[in-house]
Write a structure and sequence with these properties.
Helices cover 52% and strands 13% of the residues. It is α/β, with parallel strands linked by helices. Helix 8 packs across helix 10 and helix 8 crosses helix 11.
Length: 216
C-alpha cells in the first residue's frame, strides 16, 4: 500500500517542521509538499496530487473555511484535516460543512493526529466525541442562535473582534481594507442585534465561543 501523500499548510515554520517530523516517522505517510499560506496551498494543489491536506485554520490572507472550500473546489477528492488552536466548539461544525473531513486542536497527541490522518485518508471522518455529541444534541434554539446566522467571513471577523483585534489589525491579517472590515462589523452587529464590541465579547463568553488560548 502506497504512503499517504500529505500537504502541510501552516504559516508558522516551527509548526510545519514539527508536523513534518511526526509524519516522517510514520512509514505509511509522506510529506509531499508544504505551504505557509492559503494562496501557495492552492497553487500546489492545482499542480500536484495529494491524498490529504493538513490545514491550519488561522493564517494571513486566504484561510479558514474559505480555504477549505477553495481547495475542495480545485480537488473534490482531496481529504482535509484542520489542525487549529481554536477549540472545536468554535469552528469544527463550520469546517466540516465547508468540506473538511476532520478537526483537531494543536495540543492533540501525535498518535491522535496520525490516527486521524489514517481514518480520513480511508474515507472516514474525525471529530472528538465531545464535539460530535454537541453537534448531534444541538437544540433548535442553538441552531438559530445569532452567531450561526453569520457568514463564514463575518464569523471569522467576529472571532477576531472578540479576541481584541482592531479593524486595522484585522484588515492586515485578512488582506482586507479597514473600510471593508468596518462594514462587516456593522453587519455583524445588526445580525446579532448588538451594539458594540463589548456586547460581542459578552455574547462570546455567554455562548462558550472564546478560545482558551490565543489563535495560532
Amino acid at each position: 500500500m502506497s504512503a499517504i501523500r500529505v500537504l502541510v499548510v501552516d504559516d508558522h515554520q516551527l509548526v510545519r517542521e514539527g508536523l513534518k517530523q511526526i509524519l516522517g516517522a510514520d512509514a505509511g505517510m509522506s510529506v509531499a509538499g508544504e505551504a505557509s499560506n492559503g494562496d501557495d496551498a492552492l497553487a500546489l494543489v492545482r499542480k500536484n496530487e495529494y491524498d490529504l491536506a493538513l490545514l491550519d485554520m488561522s493564517m494571513p490572507g486566504l484561510s479558514g473555511v474559505n480555504l477549505v472550500k477553495r481547495l475542495k473546489t480545485e480537488r473534490p477528492k482531496l481529504k482535509i484535516l484542520v489542525v487549529s488552536m481554536h477549540g472545536e466548539s468554535q469552528y469544527a461544525a463550520r469546517a466540516l460543512k465547508a468540506g473538511a473531513s476532520g478537526y483537531l486542536t494543536k495540543d492533540s497527541a501525535p498518535a491522535l493526529l496520525l490516527g486521524a490522518i489514517r481514518k480520513i485518508a480511508a474515507g472516514g471522518v474525525h471529530i472528538s466525541e465531545a464535539a460530535a455529541e454537541g453537534l448531534l444534541n444541538a437544540s433548535a434554539s442553538d441552531v438559530v442562535a445569532p452567531h450561526r446566522t453569520l457568514s463564514d467571513r463575518e464569523y471569522e471577523i467576529f472571532k477576531l473582534l472578540v479576541e481584541g483585534r482592531g479593524p486595522t489589525e484585522i484588515g492586515d491579517a485578512l488582506h482586507l481594507s479597514v473600510k471593508t472590515v468596518s462594514t462587516h462589523k456593522t453587519r455583524i452587529l445588526q445580525k446579532m442585534n448588538l451594539h458594540g464590541t463589548a456586547d460581542l465579547v459578552r455574547y462570546a463568553m455567554e455562548h462558550g465561543l472564546l478560545d482558551d488560548k490565543p489563535a495560532g
